[in-house]
Amino acid sequence: MRRSGRSAGGSNGGVGTIWLAAGGTAGHLNAAIAVLQELQGVAPAVLITTDRNIDVTLSADLGVPTVRLAGTGLGRGLGPVVRAAWVDLRALGRNLVELRRLPKPDAVIAFGGFHTPLAALVARARGAKVFVLEQNAVLGRANSLVAVFASRILLAFPAAVPGRLYPRAVLVGNPVRSRGAVEKRAARKRLGMEEDGFVVVTTSGSLGSTKVNQVVSELAGLLGKLPGVELWHFVGQRNAGDGAASGGAYHRMGFSDELLNYMAAADLVISRAGASTLSELATVGAPSVLVPLPGSPRDHQRRNAEVFSRAGAAWVIEEAELEANALLERVGWAMEHRQALEEMGAAAQALAKREAARAVVEEVASCLRPRG
Question: In this model, does residue 241 exceed pLDDT 60?
């Protein structure tokens, strides 16, 4: 594996249409959108995503051709796998028609999602070079399939990859979609927060987690013990209509496209350990409490969290040990040890790769440019 280096020249001449296949979660799609932003003026692009609500919301009005494929992920256990296979088989014909209508690609970048192996296979059959961007510390299921025939495997972290794939692996970082203000005071002003005070932001992903949301709701009821704390609780898109209402120092929200700015405004973030979330934490230099998703595919969230824990950027709490009083103690300690908290934020920021989207584009372009 090597680390990506920017090419000496700024031109990406000779690069034709690039397909970006991403979706199913905000993390996959936001990384693809960051690369789309970097591709402007470099090469025409097509976004291939899914018909899930979160993908429809995030990919609206991007100004690029967008195809939404039907289907579902495999899930865990025999029953869910069989049901998913049936759904995907029924959607296959329509999905193939949609992909064959697209302009012939020079390259396809697979970011993850159940639909990405099909998009990569169709692109390769049409003569395109295939690239995988793995955002986690271990290859996901879809990306493992695509990696077998990929020209490059682009890594956000020094991920464990099979030995036969290692020569094609390149460390580029995880692209983060720009959201404007990422400095704390500027972010608080943008979001209408008070400049002072201790801001805690909690999120369990774009879809949300029942267990994390339950514990954070209990934490909200204990905030009277910590005067000056303001809690912003993002419950996820599918949970937006459930749970306690906002009130006082507690602000309950479903999903926001401004989450990066909320993290920038925070003194402490409590979150899952998805790759996109961690890359955003690093970008804004936010200290965090990480609660890895139990049973995440190939245990990737635990592996991701370990990267931040080893760097001194985060505390890790297992979901089975997550409870409101423990979080209250953690927040109280953080309020009393601001210097230690700042050091954690600096450690997080040291993990950021701010030019990740550009590095992805350069790697793809370098493989497509004519030699000599």
Answer: no
